[in-house]
Amino acid sequence: MIQPRFVERVHCRMPLVQLLLAFVVFQIGIRVWLRLSPQPIPFGWTWLLENPWRRSYRDPERTAVQCQIRPTDTVLEVGCGSGLFTRSLATRCVRLIAQDLEPRYLAQTRAKTQDLPHVEFLEEMCVDSGWRASRT
Fold first, then answer.
1. In what order do the strands lie in the sheet with 74-78?
2. Cys-Cys with 64: which of 69, 72, 88, 93 at CB 3.0–4.6 Å?
């Protein structure tokens, strides 16, 4: 009778290393692609904009403070998306214009800021609006 042989399993970390390497290469590829041909984020990807992880490294309140907005400023938020930063910016200025190409994103942002009467919405490309940057 043949005795079964028990082989001790050795935990191999190679698949984990390969997975991490593939992830890094994928991230680099995505970033290069986005730089070469920038595209607006599709409406179905709202979960990506509202992701709690994104808030942890790009906190809306902290970002608004870093913008150094004065109470007398008019702010143009280009590509407001789902309105993640809009409320934080709007509470610091006299007028905020939220601009986006996607009407469904503007509807989301409008719903989040309906209690702020000084927020306006534009559904057009930024280059078509005729706005210019100034800090006086």
1. 74-78, 95-99, 119-122
2. 88
pLDDT digits (tens, 9 = 90+) for 69-107: 999 999 999 889 889 899 999 999 999 999 998 899 999
Among 122, 116, 84, smallest CA distance to 100 is for 122
Which amino acid is present at 29?
G
* Chain centroid offset of residue 41 CA: 9
**How far is the C-alpha of 82 from the C-alpha of 61, rounded, in Å?**
16
Q: Where are the beta strands (DSSP E) in the chain?
A: 74-78, 95-99, 119-122
The domain covering 43-127 belongs, at the CATH homologous superfamily level, to Vaccinia Virus protein VP39 (3.40.50.150)
Delimit the domains of the chain by residue range. 43-127
- Burial class from Cβ neighbours inside 10 Å (0-12, 13-18, 19+) for residue 9 reads exposed
End-to-end CA distance of the chain: 93
Strands (E), 12-103: 74-78, 95-99
Residue 20 has pLDDT above 80, yes or no: yes
